[in-house]
Amino acid sequence: MQVQILGNGAYAPKTILTNHDLEKKIDTSNEWIVARTGIRERHIAAKDEATSDLAVHAARKALEQAGVAPMDVDLVIVATSMPDMFFPSTACIVQEKLGAKNAAAFDLSAACSGFIYALSVGEQYVRSETYRHVLVIGAEVMSRLTNWQDRGTCVLFGDGAGAVLLGPANEGRGILSVHLHTDGALWDLICVPGGAGAIPPSEKVLVECLNTIHMKGSETFKIAVRNLENVALEALHANDMSISDIDWLVPHQANIRILKAVAARLKMPKEKMVVNLDRYGNTSAASIPLAFDEAVNDGRIKRGDSILFLAFGGGLTWGAAVVNY
């Protein structure tokens, strides 16, 4: 059985933090941020907004577009690095808020690659006919993992959520393949080292900001570009396709320099790459479904288009998916 995206949705908090706002808080400038990252602004969740709230907004839109009621959802998967709490899972909270009372629910953690990892899991549940409707959500409140005094990382991240509903495919459509990779030896290149089991919450964790994002940017850049190129080629080869067969590249929105480097290596015209990094920043697991939803809604991505999803994140994790939408 083929599995397709029946509906999609996205949500970004109302508050927008611009580069000019950041200029007033830290030693940086709009010009420096744009040149280094491509980001001009990002959305920030309100104090009373949790990851589950963002996820529910996106999920409702996906269900509405698909014409499927919450009670007909069989499984909810939330990919996130910032759950509402250690347990229960954010997916359980989303299930309740959404009214999807018949659905099983669990979270998945693969950092910025989370959406592709969750897409792979959800696709297999539908393909095996275990479930008919699987809701896959990438949702993040990255602002609460951010050290706002670290100009190297605080300019990068934003908050948001994106969702897709998976179900049985019409003939000729569907998720053609998903390719996942991990290199746990490089876990410390992007991580939040403190505040959990290995380094429990303490005054030291707070003083040294160990409960915020730590990243080795230059090392990460080189590995990200190489691995994204390789997994893209792997996905194309698996489907007997070339880059010219892809209508749209929808990559994780990490950094404009990474996106341009990968597109250049793949010989993908920039006009065929979906980029909204400038307005949302890096929303981790939410970035691909946010960008996908925007491109569907504005008419760029149409039914029947061939799409290549690409992601890279902490773990290190990376992956690709080829979808005939």
Unreliable stretches (pLDDT < 50, length at least 5) are none
Assigned CATH superfamily of the largest domain: Thiolase/Chalcone synthase
Helix content: 25-40%
CATH arch. level architecture of the largest domain: 3-Layer(aba) Sandwich
Question: How large, in whole angstroms, is the Cα Rg?
Answer: 19 Å
Percent of residues in β-strands: 15-25%
Lateral strand order in the biggest sheet: 1-7-6-4-5
Mean pLDDT: 97
Number of strands: 13
Task: Give the SSE map.
Blueprint (H helix, E strand, L loop, with lengths): L2 E9 L3 E4 H5 L6 H8 L3 E4 L6 H16 L8 E5 L10 H9 L5 E5 L5 H14 L6 E8 L9 H4 L4 E10 L5 E9 L7 E2 L11 H5 L6 E2 L1 H22 L9 E4 L4 H11 L10 H4 L6 H11 L8 E8 L3 E8 L1
Parallel strand pairs: 4-5, 4-6, 11-12
Antiparallel strand pairs: 1-7, 2-3, 6-7, 8-13, 9-10, 12-13
Question: Can you describe this structure?
Answer:
The protein has 2 domains: 3-171, Peroxisomal Thiolase, Chain A, domain 1 (3-Layer(aba) Sandwich); 175-324, 3-Layer(aba) Sandwich (Peroxisomal Thiolase, Chain A, domain 1), CATH 3.40.47.10. Strand 12 (306-313) and strand 13 (317-324) form a beta hairpin. The mean pLDDT is 97. Helix 3 packs across helix 4 and helix 8 (217-238) packs parallel to helix 9. The protein is globular and about 55 Å long. With 325 residues, the chain is an alpha/beta fold. A 5-stranded mixed beta sheet has the order 1-7-6-4-5, with helices on both faces. Strands 8-13-12-11 form a 4-stranded mixed beta sheet, sandwiched between helices. A two-stranded antiparallel sheet has the order 2-3. The protein is built from 11 helices and 13 strands.
